[in-house]
Amino acid sequence: MRPGEERPVEGGACAGVSELELLKLRAAERIDKAAERLGALSRAIWSEPELAYEEHRAHGVMTRFFECEPPAASWTVQPHYHLATAFRAEWGPPGVGAAPRPLQLGFLCEYDALPGIGHACGHNLIAEVGAAAALGVKGALESLPGPPPPVKVIVLGTPAEEDGGGKIDLIEAGAFKNLDVVFMAHPSQENAAYLPDVAEHDVTVKYYGKASHAAAYPWEGVNALDAAVLAYNNLSVLRQQMKPTWRVHEIKGGAHDYYNVLPNKSLWKAYIENGKKLGIEFISEDAILNGSSGSTDFGNVTFVVPGIHPYFYIGSDALNHTEQYTEAAGSQEAQFYTLRTAKALAMTALDVIFKPELLQRIKEDFKLKLQEEFLNTVE
To answer: Which residues, in sequence order, are CB contacts of 313 under 8 Å at separation 6+?
Structure first.
């Protein structure tokens, strides 16, 4: 059975509840069953924050989590996957992999922290959401009385979102090749299926000076440091005249450019529908389209594979990248919201598996947004 073909859900249904909805309940139950292990995973990452490309302990915590996930050896785990602190964990029903080609769903985990303030962007919760959603989908498919459809559930550990762009390194290494749809979710102050993330494009400016004797003939010199300071000060003053969606800031050299996240309306509508069933209250579509977020290397991913990157409330109004958000990301209260979001992602993934018309719309949305982006670039 090929992706996009009809995938009937086997097994009886309770009165008034479709078979697919029963599968979604099983996914949620599987996540609840693993809640203690998932919370411990998040706390282990949160308690020992590591910077970009140095997430060695987090890498070990994540890979051991999947290696030990019952039943034994149910996940194929590749540590150090293209990067020293990246990994890939894969599960598929027995016999999957032969023709026809299985549908491949990716769940992305981040786990790098910020200098000095730790997990002030809640990447420990991103790691937990990705792991939990993958467990939910796997558990639902394993509960089927008959053979599951040809599906691979793939978890990618993606380092260095805060500084460097680990997902871009993984794209270039081919880690996203053959994935059909990718899922992740980011902690925030609100619940939104999509927020416009701002692209980051670097401009490198070099200042060259001319040496001279500072006491005897300073007028013969050219001061490169003064030029750099004046440029910084003038750009800083200019920022108050910039439009709300514009961003100018100093960055370290050597980083990748981060692209806008391409919205996939079919995916985020399905996510909203599932989230509402779980009691998630989303901001309005107008607020989504008129608001903005930060920047993320997930944007680059959405140029190679359809994906969704919703934001979720964690029980605190603290702002990301603050000490208060670090505290909130490690709180017990955040666990309820994190696992609820994971359930919504898992339920949406099940829609993708069992609703071929949805998968087709997702692919069409993806192609359309790529075309629009190309036309905007050409213009």
So the answer is: 188, 189, 190, 191, 337
8 A C-beta contact, residue 259 and residue 299 = yes
Residues 97 and 124 sit within 8 Å (Cβ to Cβ): no
Cβ within 8 Å of residue 36, ≥6 positions away: none
Residue with tokens 């409330």: 313
The answer to whether residues 165 and 275 touch, using CB atoms and an 8 Å cutoff, is no
Give 331's DSSP letter.
S
Hey, what are 364's tokens?
Answer: 């069409």
The runs of H, that is alpha helices, within 239-332 are 265-277, 285-290, 298-301, 323-329
| Residue 236: partners with Cβ closer than 8 Å, 6 or more residues away | none
Buried-exposed string 122-154: b where 16+ CB fall within 10 A, e elsewhere: bbbbbbbbbbbbbbbbbbbbebbeeebbbbbbb
Q: What is the enclosing helix (H) or strand (E) of 24?
A: helix 19-33
Instruction: From 325, 321, 327, select the one nearest 114 (Cα to Cα).
Output: 321
pLDDT by residue, tens only, the chain of 379 residues: 333 344 555 544 444 569 999 999 999 999 999 999 999 999 999 999 999 999 999 999 999 999 998 877 799 999 999 999 999 999 998 877 666 889 999 999 999 999 999 999 999 999 999 999 999 999 999 999 988 899 999 999 999 999 999 999 999 999 999 999 999 999 999 999 998 866 655 555 666 777 775 666 687 778 877 876 776 677 667 767 766 555 555 554 446 889 989 999 999 999 999 999 999 999 988 887 776 667 899 999 999 999 999 999 999 999 999 999 999 999 999 999 999 999 999 999 999 999 999 999 999 999 999 999 877 765 5
